[in-house]
Write a structure and sequence with these properties.
about 120 residues, Immunoglobulin-like, 4-stranded antiparallel β-sheet, 3-stranded antiparallel β-sheet, about 10% helix, about 35% strand
């Protein structure tokens, strides 16, 4: 029986990720707050110039198109269905430390008032 350092596998797993030739996550995290919908997507090695985010109909589309110099980003496109209360005029995106954060504000529903005539 061979005794192994318990951290050896962890270190090799972590380092394996850093040397992988196409580092872009196909995963993302979405959640909702009181005021907005949030999309978090890890895009290690991506630059703002390699990303395109736009709204097409009822969908938000995030595309990564790497330059020839990029070692870490592969072509990818992800579509998100927008809810009815999404304020598409004020969507914002921020890329920082390999994490893309897209914020989709919610519109405030109009309160309807109606006086009912009594017969």
């Amino acid at each position: 029986m061979t005794l192994r350092n318990p951290y050896e596998r962890l270190f090799s797993d972590i380092m394996g990720e850093f040397i992988h030739p196409e580092m872009i996550s196909d995963t993302y995290h979405t959640y909702s707050t009181k005021d907005a919908y949030i999309i978090e997507m890890p895009l290690v090695g991506a630059t703002k110039e390699e990303l395109n985010i736009n709204v097409e109909g009822d969908f938000l589309k995030i595309e990564a198109k790497p330059s020839k110099k990029s070692k870490f980003v592969k072509n990818t496109a992800v579509h998100f269905s927008l809810r009815e209360d999404a304020n598409i005029d004020n969507i914002s995106a921020k890329l920082e430390n390999g994490l893309l954060l897209v914020t989709i504000p919610k519109t405030t529903p109009e309160k309807k008032t109606l006086n009912i005539k009594i017969n």
